[in-house]
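User: Look at the shape:
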Amino acid sequence: MTTTTFVPSVGRAVSVGPGGVSLRRTFRAEWTKIRTLRSTWMTVGISAVVSITLAAVVCASNLSQWDSMSVKERLAFDGTSNALIGVLFATVIIGSLAVRAITSEYSSGMIRLTFSAVPRRRAVLAAKAALMAAVAFPVALASNLAAFFVGQQILASKSLDTSIGHPGVVTAIVFGALAVSLVAVIGVGLGTVMRRTASATTVLSLVIIGSQLLGLALPEVARQYLPGFALQAVVTVHRVSGLLSPAFGLAVLAGYALVSFGVANVLIARRDA
């Protein structure tokens, strides 16, 4: 049996079934929220600029230090990883945007209207996570490509550049973009669990960047599973001790995303809006 429900935020009647608003309409509503916010496009723009700028800075810095590097350091040099250093910071920037996708509604009280229009709370959460991941991937992919070519152009002055056809390079570029998408899912999950932008963003930053600093105190076998080190592994072409393979690193990040989303999925259905 089909009923007609008036959705205040849309301002018109929509036809829904016994389970509430369809998943397609839920995705459409969440996409409208994301794309109409100026902060969304400002944030992804900042992410791209940071990624490309860091590629130039880090590659130029390594280039200037090349003559003073030891033989061991030169052999371990990874031009691809240097150019994709921005992935580490892009995950935090895009992840913070994903956090705000849910926390902003809790802080403004709009979440009550959202759940009134779409009673299936888990569908709302799934739509937010999927859409944030979908926004993150092409932005990160384009940023990684640009950062790679900018970095290699700088390194070419001393013939340290790597071609995009070199084994592992395309994998690093694509996996780096997938990693940013997975962190976006983690951000939505953390935002749902914590409900506060500042707290969730701080935790996300500690999880990504802080884990690289704190992990230095741990044995290699343990720290390679921390998010920051898993991210580094994803964009690394030359295998080094203490890092997982790119595929395994991506799998570890997927595991963190699954846990974050799973906990959020349970809590969003149990707690009051």
Remarks:
- Confidence is low (pLDDT under 50) at residues 1-19.
- The first helix runs from residue 23 to 35.
- The two ends are 28 Å apart (CA to CA).
